[in-house]
Design a protein that fits this description.
This protein is an alpha+beta fold. It has three helices and five strands; from the N terminus they run H-H-E-E-E-E-H-E. Helix 1 packs across helix 2. The mean pLDDT is about 95.
Length: about 80
């Protein structure tokens, strides 16, 4: 699944174009490496670093969603990792 679609489906951003902007500006990292293309494939087990507002979220992808569903459905597809622990 493309990273821009994934960010939208997992409800980290409201629109795919907003996700595309985050990626093109170089803010997203996949497994520690900067992602520069929205078409980059994401797989189960990948670790994403996503800066949102004043926070940086570190998440592990557990499943790839089929659609942009309710928040509870989206949250079941990833696990938050806390780098402080």
């Amino acid at each position: 699944m493309r990273i821009d679609r994934l960010l939208c489906h997992l409800r980290f951003v409201r629109t795919r174009s907003a996700a595309q902007r985050l990626v093109e500006e170089g803010h997203i990292r996949r497994n520690g490496e900067r992602v520069t293309r929205g078409s980059q494939d994401i797989r189960i087990g990948d670790i994403l670093t996503i800066p949102l507002g004043g926070l940086v979220r570190l998440v592990e992808i557990l499943a790839l969603p089929d659609r942009r569903g309710p928040a509870r459905e989206a949250q079941a597809c990833y696990r938050e990792l806390d780098p402080g622990q």
